Amino acid sequence: MIYITGDVHSKNLLSWEHEGYGSNAKTSIRYLEILKKYGLSSTLFVNGICLDDEEKDIRKLLDFDVEFGGHTYDNFGNNKFNIFKSYINRKFFNCVYGPSFYQKNDIKKTRISFEKFGLKMSSWRTHAFGSSDKTFEILQENGVKYVSDLLGCTKPFCEKGIIHIPINIPVDQSTIAFGPILNTENRSPFAGCTKGRINPEEWLGIVLDRVHNNEKNGIPSVLLLHPATMAYIDNFRLFEKLIKSLSNYESAKISEFKL
Looking at the 3D structure of the chain, how many domains does it have? Predict the structure, then answer.
């Protein structure tokens, strides 16, 4: 079983994604068209502000076999992810997402945006995976049952009413080189910019090998493929190549997961 997920950010956020491709919501239409072509379902984790400010484009996404999960209201404040703010939050609150009162307000605000849109927010991914045990407690209070924040080869598990579904396939944004590869040392399948990156085709090979091995061992594969990243690399050509190969497997949405 494979679980294809993506993150959709607001067009109001200042980031390289929007400088190059504008609205993530519009970019996601092509993403979902390719998934539909090969008969695969998906989960998109969407900023609450998208539901409020980009209703027309977001509603187009619901014409596909997709579910929406929460992804904070506006990525911690409607601006570029601030390294200093991240450091302060970690130092004083032990969580990138910030203090409990901020998390409560942000999660509630996101849930209300879902409800106004006519949707139930039952799944969640924190921006930058910046959650903590307190986050999970607040999410449960807001009706969230499924969280996909953890990275690595940990099997899905249930703890304190939350079903955790870790991403166990190398993430595109954290692994693929978007230009010349300057450092080939200490690379890992979950390579970040400090450990060196790999070219898109090499990443594709690793992804397909991981999925194949997971299927052989009865392990669900959870992928994070950003619509904006797939557009940025080569206008979805690599993405379609990957999805065509993945169409050999059965797919499901995050909230359809059963332990």
Answer: 1
168: domain range? 2-256
CB atoms within 10 A of CB 139: 26
Strand ranges (E), 61-188: 66-70, 123-124, 146-147, 157-159, 162-164
Cβ–Cβ < 8 Å for 42, 253: yes
Structure tokens at 114: 């879902």
First to last CA, the chain: 13
**Angle subtended by helix axes 24-37 and 227-234, to nearest 10:** 80
- Residue 36 structure tokens: 């539909």
Mind listing the pLDDT tens digit of every residue in the chain (259 residues)? 999 999 999 876 656 555 666 678 889 999 999 999 999 999 999 999 999 999 999 999 999 999 999 999 998 875 555 666 776 777 767 788 989 999 999 999 999 999 999 999 999 999 989 999 999 999 999 999 999 999 987 789 999 999 999 999 999 988 887 766 555 555 555 554 445 678 899 999 999 999 999 999 999 999 999 999 999 889 999 999 999 999 999 999 999 998 8
Bridge partners for 3 per DSSP: 222
Q: Are 46 and 71 in contact (CB under 8 A)?
A: yes
Residue type, 188: S
What does pTM read for this prediction?
0.91
Tell me the Cα Rg of the chain: 17
Q: Is residue 201 a contact partner of residue 167, using CB atoms and an 8 Å limit? A: no
CATH number, domain of 155, equals 3.20.20.370
- DSSP assignment of 231-257 equals HHHHTTHHHHHHHHHHTTS-B--GGG-
